[in-house]
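FORM 7B: Structural annotation worksheet

SECTION A. Query
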Amino acid sequence: MAWTEDQIDQLKELWGEGLSTSEIGRKLGVTKNAVVGKAHRLGLPPRPSPIKRATGAKRPTRSKVMAVKSASRGPTCMWPIGHPNEPGFRFCGKGALTGKPYCQEHYDIAYIPAGRRDRERAANRPTNTSPTNRR
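SECTION B. Predicted structure
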């Protein structure tokens, strides 16, 4: 893409105003990546990433009570109770089986042994006794 002097002037002005690269691109009729590349080639000052945390910002920490509870209980059952978009949603929280994400009750629901699964499928399969299908 060839940049005109007018576009470069507008880019510098909008960059100085602090507009996002997408906003600048929309105003100039170019892509966000074209704006980023041209700004870099022009040596315009870099922008702070909207994704990275500000220098010195701390990550949110769990409360000491929660840390002690989970450390003393070990892994807990991750079976969802309720719907994630509804108040009161939670996970089961009982002790999980070693190496599994669920307690015994929810493990029995989630994991069906292959032999049992095959027998259940066979039992539920409709039998076709139509005379047209016999040979």
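SECTION C. Observations
The longest strand covers residues 80-81. The chain has a mean pLDDT of 81.

SECTION D. Sign-off
Analyst initials: ____
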